[in-house]
Amino acid sequence: MIDLAFLKGTETVGIKVLGKTIQFCKMQGAFFRYAPIEGLKLSTAGILQEFPDLKGKPERTIKKIAIKRFKEHINGLRTEKQVQDYVIKDLKKHGYKIKAIKRAGFRPKVFK
């Protein structure tokens, strides 16, 4: 299990990697709940930027296909470390900065 914390502006986002499963949360103080990718509010514009071939399809279809492609890509990665590296690289493109990485309950590695 790997826990990742990211900053974008004043917002802190948490991501938990459990094998091939990824859960997301928006951290607010000590209260946070993880949700699967299906529970996120995905931006259609952001999806179309990543997958321009989906342009012209209904919004619900676009989101379902994007989630399916994301899951297929994650399942193609072999280790949690590869999933972690992919998530960090992908979120960095969207302006998120890695704040901390915590592996299997050990003390977190904090970035400044």
How many helices? The count is 3
The sequence of SSEs as H and E is EEEHHHEE
Q: Give the rounded overall mean pLDDT.
A: 91
Total domain modules = 1
- What class would the helix/strand composition place it in? alpha+beta
Query: How much strand content do the residues show?
Result: 25-35%
Shape: globular
Widest beta sheet: strand line-up: 3-2-1-4-5
Helix percentage = 25-40%
- Got a strand count? 5
Low-pLDDT ranges? none
Distance between the termini: 23 Å
Question: What's the alpha carbon Rg, rounded to whole Å?
Answer: 14 Å
Largest pleated sheet: 5 strands, antiparallel
Structure description:
The chain has helices spanning 44-50, 59-76, 80-93; strands at residues 2-8, 11-18, 21-27, 97-103, 109-110. The chain is an alpha+beta fold. The chain has one domain (2-110). The protein has a five-stranded antiparallel beta sheet, with helices on one face. The longest helix has 18 residues, at 59-76. The radius of gyration is 14 Å and the shape is globular.
